[in-house]
Write a structure and sequence with these properties.
This is Ribose-5-phosphate isomerase A. By secondary structure, the chain is an alpha/beta fold. The chain has six helices and 15 strands. Bound molecules: ribulose-5-phosphate.
Length: 223
């Protein structure tokens, strides 16, 4: 909790007056949004693009100015969380179910900053089950195909019903084991009919802010 807060507060300090800011989703970004709400009350002028209904609700409650994604061509800086990050700044995202929207917002962002606690930094991705957003009525077929490829897929549930994303899709959480080639796996999965997006974000982050007990440090993507 402290680590997430430290990372969030440092990342929020990167936002400058006049920026269009992408707001990610999750418990670490929560601290970014709260800090941005405070800075806006102190006079910071920004426009924000949300990546989920949960983030929209929080940002609105703090008085942040939100614009719909459909009206934005470019975003100056997006700050988002991640479930795992490797040394090349590849990541797994989607633990909170907002991966599709998060990937689209990242795609039009000049700078992408990820905020994570220290437990998220890994040598190789794959301990965290990989979220894949899929077409709901094809989930049974996809699960069978993924099993045939040697993976252990699990349909994400919310109580006794399948979890649905803000875009009304389903998510399969895929036990992959350590991923040798994140980009190769992402491409392979994306080629499967019914797969809408994968939670593999390939060298997406320009900056990763890693919280610690006493502060936060910044890792830069040197690609
Ligand atoms: O990808 C995400 C949501 O789709 C989140 O950014 C990711 O799950 C990290 O969340 P948290 O900061 O709560 O650990």
């Amino acid at each position: 909790m402290e680590e997430k807060r430290h990372a969030g507060i440092l990342a929020a300090s990167f936002v400058k007056d006049g920026m269009t800011v992408g707001l990610g989703t999750g418990s670490t970004v929560y601290h970014v949004i709260v800090r941005l709400g405070e800075r806006v009350k102190e006079g910071l002028r920004i426009r924000c693009v949300s990546t989920s209904e949960a983030t929209t609700e929080l940002a609105e409650s703090l008085g942040l100015d939100l614009i719909p994604m459909s009206e934005v061509l470019n975003i100056d800086m997006t700050i988002d969380g991640a479930d795992e990050v490797d040394r090349s700044c590849n990541g797994i995202k989607g633990g909170g179910g907002a991966l599709l929207h998060e990937k689209l917002v990242a795609d039009i962002s000049r700078i992408v900053v990820w905020v994570v606690d220290s437990s998220k930094i890994v040598e190789r991705l794959g301990a965290f089950p990989l979220p894949i957003e899929i077409v709901p009525f094809f989930h049974m077929q996809l699960i069978s195909k993924l099993e045939g490829m040697g993976f252990s897929p699990r349909l994400r549930m919310s109580g006794s019903c399948p979890f649905t994303t803000d875009e009304n899709n389903y998510i399969i959480d895929l036990e992959t084991g350590f991923i040798e080639d994140p980009e190769g796996l992402h491409r392979k999965l994306k080629l499967m009919p019914g797969v809408i997006e994968t939670g593999l974000f390939i060298t997406t982050a320009d900056i990763v802010v890693v919280g610690s007990k006493d502060g936060a440090k910044v890792l830069r993507n040197t690609r």
